[in-house]
Amino acid sequence: MNFTQKLTLILGVTTLLPFIKSPSAYAAPQCAASNQIPLSKARLDVLAVQKNAVDPNLIPTEFNKKVGKAFQDFALGTIDPNRVIPENTIRYYSKLRDENTNGKKKNVAPDAVVPLIYKDILTGQEKEYPEGVFYEVKALGAATKVSITPRSDEWQIGGEVQVLSDSDAAKMWGNGVPALIFLTTSDVKISPKLRIQATLDYVALWHGIACEIPTFGGNAPDNYLQLGRADLNNPEVYVLDLTIPAPIGPGKPGKLPELSSQCYYPLPNAQVCYGGPP
Fold first, then answer.
1. SS3 of residue 178 by DSSP
2. Residue 266 has pLDDT above 50, yes or no
3. What is the DSSP letter of 23?
4. DSSP-assigned letters across all residues of 184-217
5. Would you give the distance in Å from CA 5 to the centre of its chain?
6. Is 43 exposed, middle or buried (0-12, 13-18, 19+ CB in 10 A)?
7. Residue 136: φ, ψ to 5°
């Protein structure tokens, strides 16, 4: 995004301020149904053990990694009812991250990358920008809500916004808006600083949370989790682009992937396996 575009965006936001909610006025993301229960990280940990998704005997740091990976697999597998979003393995150079970590971290790796597809409502023609949408899946928790800022994960998040702002999708003014989509536990919130960076960099910021589907009549549902519809944190980027965004979510009901035939040895010659014999 060049200086002229940024200046235009700043002036446009200033003009629209009376009509745009302040960052503190945004409602928290909601569940897909009113009877569902927002999924905290603490509850996710319990479910991961109860549903045989993570080995409870792991050390805490490894346990959290495995829970995070199981939650990521669930999220990317269900947020789009029509397909499974593949995990990203590509790293993208970020000047912002490089500079703010003094060269310690130069690249960013979103959890998933999908094309941004823009459809002209007048002509019906579609344009596709291959790396226009990033997904970040976060299973985080604390006594108070965890705030995601540009500095999070050693500037990984701010770096992703910067990479999107330099993408082909951001350069095509009036032809779609690149997006960073967060799928998280209910303990997570988006900070005002991240909203400001994303808005000035012409990147849409979305946030959806996972919720637990309640048990009825003592029978637990096979698919016990569902992602709600993602909340748009900075609608002004679409207003200024004269674009109507498609909704993200709610996802389809799903569950944490169960452990397959994995074995470990808590003691010599004492083998424990999950998912059946090794």
1. coil
2. no
3. G
4. E-TTEEE-HHHHHHHHHTT-EEEEEEEEEPPPBT
5. 27
6. middle
7. -125, 125
Helix axes 152-165, 192-200, angle to 10 degrees: 20
* Cα–Cα distance, 116 to 177 (Å, whole number): 8
Please report where in the chains the tokens 């130069």 appear, as a residue: 106
Q: Give the separation between CA 91 and CA 163, rounded to whole angstroms.
A: 11
Prior bond to 150 cis, omega within 30?
Answer: no
- Using CA atoms in the order 256, 130, 194, 191, what is the torsion angle rounded to 10 degrees? -20
Residue whose tokens read 């540009």: 150
Residue 262 pLDDT greater than 70, yes or no: no
Phi then psi dihedrals of residue 213, to 5 deg: -85, 125
Cβ proximity of 38 and 186 under 8 Å? yes
Measure the CA–CA gap between 234 and 60, rounded to whole angstroms.
36
182-191, 206-215, 230-239, 260-269: the lowest-pLDDT one: 260-269
Domain boundaries, the chain: 3-14+28-258
In 121-191, alpha helices (H): 152-165, 168-171
Across the chain, mean pLDDT equals 85
Contacts of 228 (CB under 8 A, 6+ apart): 29, 30, 31, 32, 36, 208, 209, 210, 211, 249, 250
Instruction: Output the CA torsion sign for 146, 151, 154, 160.
Output: positive
84-117 burial by CB neighbour count: b if 16+ within 10 A, else e?
ebebbeeebebebbbebbeeebeebebbbbbebe
**Rounded CA Rg of the chain:** 20
What's this model's pTM, rounded to 2 decimal places? 0.84
Q: Could you tell me which residues are beta bridge partners of residue 226?
A: 211
